[in-house]
Design brief:
By secondary structure, this protein is an alpha/beta fold. The chain contains 7 helices and 12 strands. Strands 1-11-12-9-2-8-4-5-6-7 form a 10-stranded mixed beta sheet. A two-stranded antiparallel sheet has the order 3-10. A hairpin with an 8-residue loop joins strand 11 and strand 12. The N and C termini lie far apart (57 Å).
Length: 285
């Protein structure tokens, strides 16, 4: 996919690089006994990842979605052992509001073939985070040979559990609620042998991943465009994080092409480990 990208960070070589396979070939951690969790969003300059103004539900606005970002979204999926999704995504999919069935999409056969060349299944497995279990599972997931997990809370409906298990999913308890405990979930997945998990869901799951301290990398596409809108979502929704989640910039690429008008920046941020910053409430004296 031309034209190429301009590397802006880290300092050093700024020769243009191709967009295709940028994230497919990117070094990513793969520990022996731990799960590396990473996520991805496309956002406007004013922080919108989804809009609901006049729509039945919030969706990614067409003014920031574009095929060049979508290619990199799919490449990150190609690197995953398992995808983190949500019940809301499958409800939106059934209603025709989702962008696509979970990656890898049918237009990305080169990435499916690449996975198979690496000794991986053609499609990553899936885990659905849901406290209510009020969603359908598409039969396509099972036909693709994916293992499907459903992570829920202790008090979830037994009837809904049975329905999903009859369909072929494995339902696991991840805490008393009200939300799925992301730390417990990631420990379970690591024990099952998964080493890379890609969050392809929305801001509430992202909040839980941040709160639990399990998200390690965030890939953000910053569209150089302001869209406004009063009914919107940003990358994390929920109570104030205490302490806040701190990140370091790992890479930054300028894509002047975008959709032929506004360009975009492709950034990767890695989360800092250790204690949070000193706040006014905790500062001595």
């Amino acid at each position: 996919m031309t034209p190429p990208l301009i590397p802006l960070h880290p300092p050093g070589n700024h020769d243009p690089v191709p967009l295709t396979n940028l994230y497919r070939d990117l070094p990513l951690p793969r520990g022996d006994d731990r799960l590396y969790v990473y996520g991805n969003f496309v956002t406007s300059l004013d922080g919108r990842i989804a809009l609901g103004d006049g729509l039945p539900a919030q969706t990614v606005p067409g003014s920031i979605a574009n095929r060049r970002d979508w290619r990199l979204f799919q490449e990150l999926a190609a690197r995953a052992d398992i995808l983190l999704s949500s019940g809301r995504y499958f409800r939106d999919l059934q209603a025709g509001r989702a962008q696509d069935i979970l990656p890898l999409g049918t237009d990305y056969g080169d990435l499916v073939a690449w996975r198979q060349d690496q000794g991986l299944p053609g499609q990553p497995d899936v885990v659905v985070l849901s406290a209510t279990l009020d969603f359908p599972l598409p039969e396509l997931l099972f036909r693709q040979g994916r293992r499907v997990w459903v992570a829920t809370v202790t008090g979830a409906s037994p009837r809904a559990r049975d329905r999903l298990e009859r369909q072929g999913a494995t339902v696991i308890d991840c805490g008393a609620g009200p939300r799925v405990d992301a730390a417990r979930l990631t420990r379970h997945l690591a024990a099952e042998g998964y080493r890379r998990a890609y969050s392809v869901t929305g801001p509430w799951v992202m909040h839980e991943l941040l709160r639990a301290g399990v998200l390690e990398s965030l890939f953000l596409t910053h569209r150089l465009r302001i869209v406004a809108g009063a009914d919107y979502a940003t990358i994390a929704e929920g109570p104030v994080l205490a302490p806040p989640a701190d990140f370091d910039l790992v890479h930054l690429y300028l894509d002047r092409a975008g959709d032929g008008r506004a360009g975009q920046l492709f950034a990767r941020y890695d989360r800092r480990s250790g204690p949070g910053p000193v706040t006014s409430e905790s500062r001595p004296g």
